Amino acid sequence: DTTYNDLTMQGIQFQTGSDNDFQPRNETLSLGNDDQGFWGMTAMTAAEENFPNPPADKPGWLALAQAVFNTQASPERHDDTCGGGLRWQIPPTNKGYTYKNSIANGCFFNLGARLARYTGNTTYSDWAEKTWNWWADVGFLDSETYAIYDGADVSNNCTKINKAEFSYNSAVWVLGAAYMYNHTKSDTWKTRVEKLVDHGLETFFPKGIAYEPTCEDWGTCSTDMLSFKGYLHR
């Protein structure tokens, strides 16, 4: 059914911004790496699913996904605090700029893994490996249970980890790991996928129904949090 193809294409293109990297000028002062990353993953999905490309005078879906990856791989997005990794927010004035978390780095990892599989370019897989290793080493991934923790502040070198678990973190990391396994055929990635899936099902589907444990029981889920289970279902 192609009924809404044009509207969908227009909606995505409206967010690309003048530099075609999903950093529109009206959002730059409030933009997070995860916000940009979700649009990058949207473009990547469009490329993978052969969704009709924009008009010839506009960048295609692959180019848009690559533009997001390139901006997030640039040195200005990575610093030495906590040994590396992306910050949650992009502008220093944003609340959350001093926070490094699983979702920002998970979106970047996810996009790198998918670009590696789609293009065969080792630059993307190298970044995916590097991002996974940093994320695991800093302690955002529990090496025993494979719980994914939310993040930590750079002011204490990411040593005081916020151990809240959210389903969207599980979603982006397990999908990226699955793409890395598909791309590399490595038993290491296979094991990682299996452990992430097992913990995700145990934590977010304890009774066979999707559940957001950090906020659902208390009715404290924000609007964003209410969307998290949707990403995990996908």
TrEMBL record:
Alphabetical keyword list: Glycoprotein, Glycosidase, Hydrolase, Signal
Sequence similarity: Belongs to the glycosyl hydrolase 76 family.
SUPFAM superfamilies linked: Six-hairpin glycosidases
GO biological process annotation, one example: fungal-type cell wall biogenesis
One Pfam family named in its UniProt record: Glyco_hydro_76
Gene: MIPS
InterPro entries found in the cross-reference section: 6-hairpin_glycosidase_sf (IPR008928), Glyco_hydro_76 (IPR005198), Mannan-1_6-alpha_mannosidase (IPR014480)
Keyword Iron-sulfur applies: no
Catalyzed reactions: Random hydrolysis of (1->6)-alpha-D-mannosidic linkages in unbranched (1->6)-mannans
Provenance organism: uncultured fungus
GO MF terms held by the record: mannan endo-1,6-alpha-mannosidase activity
Enzyme Commission no: 3.2.1.101
Name this polypeptide is given: mannan endo-1,6-alpha-mannosidase
Glycoprotein as UniProt keyword: yes
Enzyme class label: hydrolase
